[in-house]
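In the lab's daily routine, each protein ends up as an entry in a very long ledger. A line of letters takes care of the sequence, but it says nothing directly about the fold. The three-dimensional part falls to structure tokens, numbers that each stand for a local backbone shape. The outcome of that step, for a single protein, is printed below.
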Amino acid sequence: MKRISYSGYRFPPAIIQQAIWLYLRITLNLRDVEGLLAERGILVSYESILRWIMYFGPMIAADLCKRRPKPHTRWHLDEVYLKIDGRMVYL
């Protein structure tokens, strides 16, 4: 798995990831994310946040998809009730 490189950016990776998370996960707009970061003493413009989202967003999404467990071909069901001809049948 290729690591995401944050070299060449003024802010540390934790701040960039937090801004992206606030925008995508909590669905705030860019100015709200800018305001929340400003309350924490981090002065960054909403244009920079938009650039981070456009650049790092797809990479972070691909990384999360790779980490997700793969579905199995076998399912295990404990109890199943079906409605057949208007009556409930237990399998």
Remarks:
- The chain has a mean pLDDT of 90.
- The longest helix spans residues 46-67.
